[in-house]
C-alpha cells in the first residue's frame, strides 16, 4: 500500500531522497550525531551525478541511506518508483572507497563472486565475467590474486565485480581516493566509458573538485555536517567527454565555482573560521 505521504515521482527520476535526515544514535542514550540532512535529491535516469563536500559532512551516509545500507531517521528514499527498505535493492551496485576485493580469490573468482552467490547459471557467469575482464582490461590477470596487482588494477577488479551484476544505478564512494593523479584520470575515463556503454545512472562521491567537474553532468555541493545540498551545478558536457576537457576554459570556471562554494564549508569542517 502506498504511504499517504508518498510523492509522485516523475518518470525521468531514477532515485529520489525526500526530506531525508540521518541521526546516528549515541551509545549512551545522548543526543546522537546528526550526520545528514534534511536532503532532497533526485537522480535523473542515466545521468552522471557527483557529490562533493568537506570531510565528515555525511557523503558516505548519503550513499548508505540511498542504497538501503542504513535507514533514514526521517524522510523517504525511492528507487525506480519503489520505497527503499532495509536491503540494497536489485539494480543498485556499490563500489566502496576501500579495496573490497578478496585477496584469497583470483581476479576471475572475485568478479564472479556476486553472481555465484546469486545462483546465476554457470554459462551466464562465464559470459558476464569474460565481458567484465575484457572491459576493465584485466583479461591477462584473470588468474592473478589481488595482492599481485597495482592499486589501480585492484580498483578495476572492484568495479568489475559491480559491473557483472548489471546495476542500473552505480554508487561509488571515493573509489579513486588512494590512487595517484594520473591513474585517477585514466580511471575517470574508464568510468565514463562504463557509464556510456551501460547507460546506468552514476552517483560518484569524491573529494576531488577536478574529478567532479570533469566527469559529471551535475554536481551536488554539500555543506559541513549535518550535510545539506547547498547547490547543484550543471556542467553542460557532452556525453562523449573524457579527461581532455580539463583544458576547456569552462572546466576552470566550474572548478573555481565549486571551490568558492566549498571553501567556507571545508574550513568549518576542520574547525577553523573562514575569512573572505
Ligand atoms: N556508524 C556510525 N555511527 C555513528 N556515527 C557515524 C557513523 N557513520 C558516520 N558517523 C558520523 O557521521 C558523520 C558523517 O560521516 P560520513 O562518513 O558520512 O562522512 P563523509 O562525508 O563520508 O566523510 P569523509 O569525507 O571523511 O569520507 C561523521 O561525524 C561521522 O562521525
Ligand atoms: Mg566518506
General description of the model:
The chain is an alpha/beta fold and 276 residues long. Helices cover 34% and strands 22% of the residues. The chain has seven helices and ten strands. A six-stranded mixed beta sheet has the order 6-7-8-3-9-10, with helices on both faces. The mean pLDDT is 91.
Short description:
With 276 residues, the protein is α/β, with parallel strands linked by helices.
Largest sheet, described in full?
6 strands, mixed
Which strand order do you get reading across the main beta sheet? Answer: 6-7-8-3-9-10
- Helix content, binned percent: 25-40%
Low-confidence stretches: none
- From the spread of the alpha carbons, the general shape counts as globular
Structural class: alpha/beta
Measured between the Cα atoms of the first and last residue, the distance is 52 Å
Average of pLDDT? 91
Bound molecules: adenosine-5'-triphosphate, magnesium ion
- Helix count equals 7
Number of strands: 10
Strand content: 15-25%
Rg for CA atoms? 19 Å
Order of helices and strands: EEEHEEEHHHEHEHEEH
Outline the fold blueprint.
Elements: E1 13-24, E2 33-44, E3 48-52, H1 59-67, E4 74-79, E5 82-83, E6 92-95, H2 107-117, H3 122-135, H4 151-163, E7 169-173, H5 181-198, E8 201-205, H6 209-215, E9 218-222, E10 229-234, H7 249-269
Parallel strand pairs: 3-8, 3-9, 6-7, 7-8
Antiparallel strand pairs: 1-2, 1-4, 4-5, 9-10
Helix pairs in contact: 2-3, 2-4, 3-4, 6-7
Bound molecules: adenosine-5'-triphosphate and magnesium ion (MG).
Adenosine-5'-triphosphate (ATP) binds at residues 24, 33, 35, 53, 55-61, 225.
Amino acid at each position: 500500500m502506498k504511504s499517504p505521504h508518498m510523492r509522485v515521482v516523475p518518470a525521468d527520476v531514477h532515485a529520489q531522497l525526500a526530506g531525508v535526515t540521518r541521526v546516528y544514535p549515541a551509545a549512551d542514550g545522548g543526543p546522537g550525531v546528526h550526520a545528514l540532512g534534511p536532503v532532497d535529491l533526485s537522480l535523473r535516469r542515466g545521468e552522471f551525478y557527483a557529490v562533493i563536500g568537506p570531510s565528515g559532512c555525511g557523503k558516505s551516509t548519503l550513499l548508505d541511506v540511498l542504497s538501503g545500507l542504513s535507514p533514514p531517521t526521517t524522510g523517504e528514499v525511492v528507487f525506480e518508483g519503489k520505497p527503499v527498505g532495509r536491503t540494497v535493492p536489485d539494480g543498485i551496485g556499490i563500489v566502496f572507497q576501500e579495496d573490497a576485493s578478496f585477496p584469497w580469490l583470483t581476479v576471475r573468482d572475485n568478479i564472479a563472486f556476486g553472481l555465484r552467490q546469486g545462483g546465476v547459471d554457470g554459462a551466464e557467469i562465464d559470459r558476464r565475467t569474460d565481458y567484465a575482464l575484457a572491459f576493465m582490461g584485466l583479461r591477462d590477470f584473470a588468474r592473478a590474486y589481488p595482492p599481485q596487482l597495482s592499486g589501480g588494477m585492484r580498483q578495476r577488479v572492484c568495479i568489475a565485480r559491480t559491473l557483472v551484476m548489471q546495476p542500473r544505478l552505480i554508487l561509488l564512494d571515493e573509489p579513486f581516493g588512494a590512487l595517484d593523479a594520473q591513474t585517477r584520470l585514466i580511471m575517470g575515463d574508464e568510468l565514463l566509458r562504463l557509464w556510456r556503454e551501460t547507460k546506468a545512472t552514476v552517483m560518484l562521491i569524491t573529494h576531488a573538485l577536478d574529478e567532479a567537474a570533469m566527469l559529471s553532468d551535475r554536481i551536488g555541493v554539500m555543506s559541513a555536517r549535518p550535510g545539506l545540498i547547498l547547490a547543484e551545478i550543471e556542467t553542460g558536457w557532452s556525453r562523449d567527454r573524457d579527461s581532455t576537457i580539463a583544458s576547456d576554459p569552462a572546466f576552470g570556471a566550474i572548478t573555481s565555482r565549486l571551490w568558492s562554494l566549498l571553501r567556507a564549508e571545508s574550513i568549518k569542517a576542520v574547525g577553523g573560521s573562514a575569512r573572505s
